């Protein structure tokens, strides 16, 4: 299968060390023996901190986004270092470059592309662009909940939801640069129009990536009507 995997920056850089990069590199090396892989890496806490600095200067959201994008590309380079020869050792700056680099037969790792597109959105657009079979979004929670599980004990995990209902759920959420919501509306719109098989799961357990690809009952599946 051709698979796009989005990995949140907070997953890879939770403790500011190499551990999680090494864990994911081993799993990705194993998966690339059977699948064509495209990885999109988020900015995480470093991106939010840099964005906070530049916002204090009075920068607009587009400029804040641009700073965040640079951080995602640094994170992508860190994962490339961990992957070594199995990955193409350049970070694509756009979808055409990602497709061109994929002709190498190696894993492609990228970050953001342009302002107003979160890495959630980038991963969904990339999946459509390269005609991926599946999109896996690895985040810091187990999937979509009825409310924020970090704040509410009665939050319930939603195992399956249509793209339309997910859009309704996200409607009106704050989408400023560096803010984190469960998922990005642009990403869901792309998933809906592409009829893209999507799984959102907890990336703090790297093995969940294998489970999601194998179709095990994990996280939240975004389905189309």
UniProtKB/TrEMBL annotation:
EC number: 2.7.4.22
Regulation: Inhibited by UTP.
Keyword field: ATP-binding, Cytoplasm, Kinase, Nucleotide-binding, Pyrimidine biosynthesis, Transferase
Gene Ontology CC terms: cytoplasm
Domain Aspartate/glutamate/uridylate kinase: 1-202
Reaction catalysis annotation: UMP + ATP = UDP + ADP
One GO molecular-function entry: ATP binding
Annotated GO biological process: 'de novo' CTP biosynthetic process; UDP biosynthetic process
The keyword ATP-binding appears for this protein: yes
Family matches, as CDD domains: AAK_UMPK-PyrH-Pf
Pathway assigned in UniProt: Pyrimidine metabolism; CTP biosynthesis via de novo pathway; UDP from UMP (UMPK route): step 1/1
Recorded family membership: Belongs to the UMP kinase family.
Free-text function comment from the UniProt entry: Catalyzes the reversible phosphorylation of UMP to UDP.
Quaternary structure (record): Homohexamer.
Name of the protein in question: Uridylate kinase
Provenance organism: Methanobrevibacter millerae
Lineage: Archaea, Methanobacteriati, Methanobacteriota, Methanomada group, Methanobacteria
